[in-house]
Amino acid sequence: MSIFEGLFRSYLQDTTCYELEEGVASGGTTFFLPDCCEVWTGATVKVVMRRIILSVISVVLLSGCSPYQVREFSTPSIEPPVHFSEKFDQPLLNLEGRKTAPYWTQYGAPKLETLVSAAFENNFSLSEVIARIEQVRAQAQVAGAGRFPQLTVEGTGRRTRVETRTPIFAGGFTPATQIIQNQFAVSNGLSYELDLWERVASTNRAALLRVRATETELESSALSLSGEVFRQWMTALEAVQLERVLEEQIETSKTFLELTELRFSLSQGTALDVFDQRQQLASLRTQLPRVEMSRDQALHRLAVLTGQAPGAVTLEAVGDFFHVVPEWIPDVRPADLIVLRPDLRSILFQLQASEYDVAAAVADRFPRLTVGFQYNFTTPDLDSLFPNKT
C-alpha cells in the first residue's frame, strides 16, 4: 500500500465507513466501499488525496515555527544571604512610580544646571549616540520590511527608426522610406516570503532589541556626561576656594615673616626663625601654580564637554559655591544597582538581540518559500498603457 493510499485510508476513518477493499476495474483502480458509501474511481481518489496534501501544506505554511529555541534573558535574581547584614534585610529597592529630580538640580546651583543643559545640547559624543539611534531605527525599518509584500514596478521605452529603399521604376529610382517604431513596456511584480522558519521575524526582533539597547546607551551616556560635568564643576570650585585660601595664607605668612624679621632685628629671634618663615612662605607660593593649573584644566574640560572652544567657559559661568547639600540617598545594595544601571540593561538587550541573530542564522539554512506574480504589458502606443476610461 502506498503512502497516498494510507493517507486516503486515514481520511476515510473520519467518516462512517471503516472498511476499504481494493479491486481492479477497467480504466484504473477502483475502491469498493461498504453499502453506506459509494464506489470511487482512481480519479476521485486523486482529487481527495490532493485536497489532503493541500490541507497539510496550508497548515504548515500558516503555522511558521523557528528551528531554534530562542532563550529569553532577564535580570538575574540576586538575593543576599539572610544574615548578610541587618541593614540590608529589606527587599530590593522599588522605584516604580517614584519621581525623583535630577541630582544636579538638588544643589541649588543654577550655573551647574546651565552647564549640564549646555552639555546635553552641544556635546559631540552625545550627538554621536543620538545619530546612532537614528541609524539603528532605520536598520530596524529595513529589517521589518520583509514582513510585508514587495511591489516592484518597472517601465521601459524604446524608439527605433528603420530606413528602407524600394525600387519603383526599372531605371533604378529607389526613394528612401523611414519607418519609426515605438515600443513601451510596463512590468509589475508582487512577491511575499512565507516566514516558515521565522527568519524574518527573528531578524526584526533583533533589530528592535538593538534599538532599545542604543536608546539605553544614550541614557547611560547622558548619565556619564552629567557626572563628568559635575565632577569638573566641583574641581573648578575646589580650585577657586583653594586659591583664595592660599592667597590668605600667603598674606598671613608675609605678615609673620615681617614680624619675625622685626624680632630678629631687635635681637628677640634667631636667623633660623627667619629662615623657617621664609621657607614656609615659599612653600605656599609653590602650591599656587598647581591650584591655578587645576582650575584652568577644569574650565578647559567644561568647555569641551559643553561643545565649546577652549577658554569659552570662565569662572563667571562656574560660580563661587553652592548653599544646598542634598539629602543622602537610602541604603542601596549592589543588587539594586544591577536593575538601575542603564549600561547593564543595554548589555542585556544586546545579548537578547544576539540570541535572535542566532535564530535567524539557523533559519537561513533552510529553504525559503516565496509566492507572488508578475504582469508584463507591451504596446507600441503610450496611450494604451494608461487608458482614459470615462
In short:
By secondary structure, this protein is an alpha+beta fold. It has helices spanning 3-12, 42-62, 110-122, 124-144, 199-265, 271-305, 315-318, 334-340, 342-363; strands at 21-25, 28-32, 40-41, 150-165, 176-194, 369-379.
State the main characteristics.
single chain; 390 residues; alpha+beta; 3-stranded antiparallel β-sheet; 9 helices
Head-to-tail CA distance between termini: 63 Å
Total beta strand runs? 6
Task: Give unreliable regions as ranges.
Answer: 1-40, 86-92
Principal-axes geometry comes out as elongated
Tally the helices: what do you get?
9
Q: What composes the largest sheet? A: 3 strands, antiparallel
What report would you give on this structure?
With 390 residues, this protein is α+β, with helices and mostly antiparallel strands. The chain contains nine helices and six strands. It has helices at residues 3-12, 42-62, 110-122, 124-144, 199-265, 271-305, 315-318, 334-340, 342-363; strands spanning 21-25, 28-32, 40-41, 150-165, 176-194, 369-379. The strands form two sheets. Strands 1-2-3 form a three-stranded antiparallel sheet. A three-stranded antiparallel sheet has the order 4-5-6, with no helix packed on it. A hairpin with a 2-residue loop joins β1 and β2. α1 (3-12) crosses α2 and α5 packs antiparallel against α9. The chain is elongated. The two termini are 63 Å apart.
